[in-house]
Amino acid sequence: MLTDSTKWATICEDYDKIRVDAFAFGYGDVWEELMDSTRSGSAKISDWAKFLSDVNNAAEGSQNIISKGDPFQRRSAALHAMSGGFVCATGRCDRSASPLTATMPPQCPLFDRPMAQD
Ligand SMILES: [Zn+2]
To answer: Of 9, 28, 87, 97, which residue is most buried, by most CB within 10 angstroms?
Structure first.
């Protein structure tokens, strides 16, 4: 079982791809609402689970992509390969990342703020 903070990290890590998929498959409005509620702190991880399943289903319907199963489980595999020294400043997601440059911390796209030194 994945913890909630791992699930948040998978969303954070895959932010760009999820956003592109959401708009490509007609869920752009839902995405925007979910981002607002995530940044204001009211979104739950279960809201994201439903959203990711809906987008996966829409993608399957149009492209025959096989994407069964837990939407977070599929995405989490890539997380474990990463390390970095910076963590999400909210403490909600356990993604870690390396600085973009020596003087610029990595950004958390999900919560829209710079990441903090671990
Ligand atoms: Zn994050």
So the answer is: 9
Phi, psi of 87 (to 5 degrees): -130, 165
Task: Report CA(88)–ligand 1 centroid distance (Å).
Answer: 5
Q: How far is ligand 1, taken at its centre, from the CA of residue 69, in Å? A: 23
Alpha carbon distance 26, 87 (integer Å)? 32
| Phi, psi angles (nearest 5°) of residue 108 | -90, 110
Element (H, E) at 19: helix 15-24
Does pTM surpass 0.90? Answer: no
Provide the residue ranges of all domains of the chain, joining segments of one domain with +: 4-117
How far apart are alpha carbons 13 and 111 in whole angstroms? 12
Mean pLDDT value of segment 83-104? 80
CA atoms within 13 A on the CB side of 66: 0
